[in-house]
Every structure is written in C-alpha cells, then in structure tokens.
Amino acid sequence: MANRNEDKNAVRAAALDRRTLETQIQMSLELDRRGSGGLSGSTGIGFFDHMLNSFAVHGGFLITLSMKGDLDVDAHHSVEDVGIVLGKLFAETLGDRSGIARFGMSYVPMDEALARSVIDICGRPYLVFDAAFKNQSVGAFDNCLTVEFFRALAVNMGATLHIKLEYAENDHHAIEAIFKSAARAISQAAEITGGGALSAKGSL
C-alpha cells in the first residue's frame, strides 16, 4: 500500500462496494473530521445505527452508508459485514501505515459504565474482547454481535485491538462506551505524525 499519510492537508478517504448473497453494502469513510463526523445512512438496525453514529462522531470519522441485509434471518450478517467493510476502508485510508502514531488508547465512561480500548495499527490482526452483558439484546441488536463487529473490524483493518469493559450495569451504556472508546483509540492511532513507519524494523 502507498503512504496515504504524507500530507497533513490531504483528505484521507476511501469507498467500497461489497455485495454478497447476504448483504449489499456501499460505504465511504473519511478521516480527520473531528467536530463534523457522523453516520449518514442506515443498517436497518436502530441500535446499531446509534452505535455507528457515536463511533463516527467521537472518532472524527464521516461514514456514508447504503446497504441491504438479510434482516429477515437476523442481524448477524449485517453487523459483521459492516465491520468487514469499515475495516477495509480504514486499511485503505491509512495506506502502508507510515507517518501515523500507530498506537492509541482511550478510556470512556458512560454513567456507571467504563470501557477501555487499546489499539496497534500494525498489520497484525488480533482482537481481545473482554466484556460481559446483563441481557441478550438492546432493542433489535443482539449484544453478542458487539464482539463480531469488532473482530471483523480489527481483522480487516489489520490491527491488534484490545477492548475491556471495566464495569457496567446497563447494557446500552456498556456497548456505547465500548464503541466510543474504540473510536477514540483508532483516531489517536491514525493521527498523522509524519516520517516513516513507527517500527524498529523500519516497516510494518
């Protein structure tokens, strides 16, 4: 991949059209939109849309989405495939990962809930996800799909991502704190620093 992070004034953006028998997704991603980030479009899953919008706002990302998923089955394919596409778009916008901070960490509270996310955008995909929820779902969103989204995101982004829900009582608060903390960690790691790859090996 080329270094997309050489010019601090350049727009880091990418778009992807991914179609399978389960989902049809058209998505674009633009970084560096702190203060004007957000989600435009819908997955058809209300709570998931709320989480994606929070993720985009707090990460400073502009996500534009048009999709159709097999929600008559359940939400699994739609949530996972959105994670796949979003991860690929992050990978595309960051290029060869030269000239970025590479590491990011964020704690985010939401009322009684506290979540921590730590990321290394290194090209080695891995997810550690430590969170237990009180209930099966929030609205039409199965809480177990939270880990599926972040696994798909980390693998396709090429990042090592550790997420821990420190504590929570309310599942809405817990999941939202996770999405916000992950977004802020990614934004921090994607910050343009200039120079080459941040690695003792000289490349990632």
Give the helices and strands as they follow along the chain. EEEHEHEEEEEHEH
In percent, how helical is the residue content?
Answer: 25-40%
What is the structural class? alpha+beta
% residues in beta strands: 25-35%
CATH superfamily: Imidazole glycerol phosphate dehydratase, domain 1
Strand tally? 10
Q: Tell me the radius of gyration.
A: 16 Å
Strand order of the largest sheet: 1-2-4-3
Topology-level CATH name: Ribosomal Protein S5, domain 2
Mean pLDDT across every amino acid position: 94
Topology:
Layout: E1 13-19, E2 23-30, E3 38-40, H1 46-59, E4 62-69, H2 76-94, E5 103-110, E6 113-120, E7 126-130, E8 137-138, E9 141-142, H3 145-157, E10 160-167, H4 171-189
Parallel strand pairs: 3-4, 7-10
Antiparallel strand pairs: 1-2, 2-4, 5-6, 6-10, 8-9
Architecture overview:
This protein is an alpha+beta fold and 204 residues long. The chain has one domain (13-189): Ribosomal Protein S5, domain 2, CATH 3.30.230.40. It contains four helices and ten strands. It has a four-stranded mixed sheet. β8 and β9 (141-142) form a beta hairpin. It is globular and about 45 Å long. The model has no long low-confidence stretch (mean pLDDT 94).
Structure, briefly:
The protein is an alpha+beta fold and 204 residues long. Helices cover 32% and strands 29% of the residues.
List keywords for this structure.
204 residues; alpha+beta; Ribosomal Protein S5, domain 2; 4-stranded mixed beta sheet; 10 strands; globular
